[in-house]
Specification:
158 residues; 5-stranded mixed β-sheet; 1 helix; elongated
Length: 158
Amino acid sequence: MKRFLIFSLFFFLVMAGCGRSGGGGGDGAPAQTVPIITNVESYDLDWNSTDSFIIPEYMQFAVYATDPDLDIANLLLTKYWPCNASVPYDGPHIIALSSQFAAEVMYSIIDPMLWNYAPIWFLTGYPLGAWRIEFQIEDTQGNESNIFKVYVSVHESG
């Protein structure tokens, strides 16, 4: 009987500690998790999915990410032309993101006042051809996500 009581007490203490985080997450999420970009989709101004754009169209993006400790802070956006370039054509630009209220989030129109720097991009004055656009998310701890690459083409009308 004494062994049963000791085992029961030990089992209770172990189970009471389960589900607790090491701090920071607040909802049972591990502290200082690294954000992950799960997908990025490109759209025209009418939200038609496309990877081919005609000048002077608008290009916009939906960025899907996850971060269990809910501390996503910034989007880093870098444009490369031609698509196989090793040096950025433009960026990286750091764009502040709205507060995260769930582990899985989607950011689309981030700040209309930053159209040439945010995921809304007005295509004027940019070279034609194949582009690579890289997305990365940074959290409040300075953790950086994977780099998610999107390839698009820009053409003239006609």
